[in-house]
Write a structure and sequence with these properties.
The chain is an alpha+beta fold. Helix content is 29%, strand content 19%. The protein has one domain.
């Protein structure tokens, strides 16, 4: 178990103890994989920062130069398609 997996919020009442994980490991995994797959490695590496109250994941990805948002949402080819394919091939990405 990683240290961040132990971060738990606990509320103790007169009847029971209520616990909630502060970081959802499924959401963290998804966010991290997205930052790696969609990152523009010509501009830098993804950065993951753990703070006492949050986790910040920064990726240098973005739209392909010259590609409009409209074209992107119409399904224009993602320049990081090879990264997506590799993630699927290795089993770290479902789709």
């Amino acid at each position: 178990m990683e240290a961040w997996e132990a971060w738990t919020f606990a509320k103790i009442t007169s009847r029971n103890r209520l616990e909630r994980k502060l970081i959802n490991p499924v959401a963290l995994r998804e966010a991290f994989i997205n930052s790696v797959v969609h990152n523009d490695y010509n501009r830098g590496w993804p950065v993951v920062e753990f703070y006492s109250d949050r986790v910040t994941i920064t990726s240098t990805g973005g739209l392909v130069e010259g590609l409009s948002q409209e074209d992107f949402f119409k399904g224009a080819l993602d320049c990081f398609a090879a990264h997506c394919w590799q993630a699927r091939l290795t089993g770290v990405s479902e789709k």
